[in-house]
Amino acid sequence: MGNVKAIALFSGGLDSILAARVVADQGIEVIAVKFVTPFFGTEVVEDEARYIEEVKAKYGLDLLVENISQGYLELLHNPSYGFGKNFNPCVDCKIFMVRRARELMQELGASFIITGEVLGQRAMSQRRDTLNVIERDSATKTELLRPLSAKLMNPTQAELDGLVDREKLYNFSGRGRSRQLALAKELGITDFPAPAGGCILADPILSKRIRKIYAGDFVVKPGEISERDVSLMLLGRQFVLPDGHWFVLGRDEGENNRLEALASDEDVCLYMEQRPGPFGLLRRGKDIPLKTNEAFYQTLCGLIVRYGKKVKDGPRGSQVTICEQDTKSFLFSDPLDDEISRPWLF
Ligand code: SF4
Predict the structure, then answer these.
(1) What are phi and psi of 269, to 5 degrees?
(2) Which residue, judged by its Cα, is nearest atom 2 of ligand 1?
(3) How far apart are CA 175 and CA 294, in angstroms?
(4) What is the C-alpha to C-alpha distance for residues 184 and 328, in angstroms, rounded to an integer?
(5) For the chain, give me the number of helices (H) and strands (E)?
(6) What is the pLDDT of residue 83?
């Protein structure tokens, strides 16, 4: 087949694995692309090299990881095709990804794009008319190949040109998974993630937090949203204090470390040195100096102590370290009463 290349959208789910493999097994060089944002693909960012190796070892696919956060955060302001059940703009999301895949196709000299879409599998985003909209709006009408449902669709240019053997493609449709599972078995693919999950925008609880930012009901305003804000918002125990300030506490060591890594010069960090407990991050705390806001910090220290480890037969209170940029200060506090802080939980 010579030097024929294709770009495959790779979510990591079974359909995307199968679609890429079906084409790769025809001797075409498939470059699988994993798009990441703070809403999906975050597990990849933690150890990109390991993930790339894993995909190669398990599925025999070469993977490229692409962070598309910037444009994606914009898209959420006003998606043309609206949202699904939660804050998931699935149709616009697909168009956005296919458009980016088209650019990659041109940059990398590939001839077509592969997706794992299956006709009729999802109520909104995989209906025939929606699949047509995705092709039209991403300008990929002849370049977008869905190998799992290809035989139910018009041939793409790659099939017409004989780059891909249409006879070796499939006619899957609907919600059932049995044909995909049988194909996986046939291709020797045994280790793949369970269906569903993975996208925070489709999560009924977490997506509410994101919706709140975009609705302008939060200390971070819609025009200012950054990738870091979204990551912060999805981490730990969240508080919005009565004056609107945003304070996040880690719930375990892993979250403490992630919060610490997300802290910037604009933020103020609080923690206890004498006993285990949460790492606290006050977003944009540099605008609230300790020197002139001691009572406010006393409250935050009370929250740190409240969620810290209790000392058996020891004092209830503890010293808390407050880091404002390079300056360390200390306050002593008793645990804050839950009755006071409960309404601030976000
Ligand atoms: S579930 Fe999330 S990642 Fe998947 S199409 Fe919808 S918005 Fe995009």
Answers:
(1) -115, 140
(2) 199
(3) 58
(4) 56
(5) 13, 11
(6) 95
Are the CB atoms for 62 and 31 separated by under 8 Å? yes
pTM (predicted TM-score): 0.85
Q: How many CA atoms lie within 13 A of 298 on its CB side?
A: 7
Contact 271, 278 (CB under 8 A): yes
Here the tokens at position 269 are: 């960090």
* 4 CA to centre of own chain: 31
Token readout for 34 is 């994993």
- Asked if residue 329 lies in contact with residue 270, where contact means CB atoms within 8 angstroms, the answer is no
Average pLDDT over every residue of 64-82:
94
For residue 242, pLDDT over 60 is answered with: yes
- Binding site membership of 40 for ligand 1 (Cβ less than 6 Å): yes
Pairing type for strands 237-240 and 268-271 reads unpaired
State which ligand 1 atom lies nearest to the alpha carbon of 11: 3
Q: Which atom of ligand 1 is nearest to the CA of 202?
A: 1
- Tell whether ligand 1 has an atom less than 6 A from the beta carbon of residue 202: yes
Q: How far is the C-alpha of 30 from the C-alpha of 7, rounded, in Å?
A: 6
pLDDT band at 24 (very low <50, low <70, confident <90, very high): very high
Percent above pLDDT 90 for the chain: 79
Ligand 1 centroid to residue 314 C-alpha, Å: 50
Q: Is the pLDDT of residue 125 over 80?
A: no
Question: CA 118, CA 127: separation in Å to the nearest integer?
Answer: 9
Ligand 1 contacts CB of residue 115 (under 6 A) = no
Span 308-337, mean pLDDT? 93
The per-residue DSSP string of 190-229 comes to ---PPSS---GGG-TTHHHHHHHHHTT-SSS-GGG--HHH
Residue bearing the CA closest to ligand 1, atom 5: 90
C-alpha neighbours within 13 Å on the C-beta side of residue 13: 17
How far from the centroid of its chain's Cα atoms is residue 186's Cα? 31
**Which of 172, 158, 98, 87 lies closest to 134 in space, CA to CA?**
98
| Rounded distance between C-alpha atoms, residue 284 and residue 135, angstroms | 42
Closest-lying ligand 1 atom to the alpha carbon of residue 84: 6
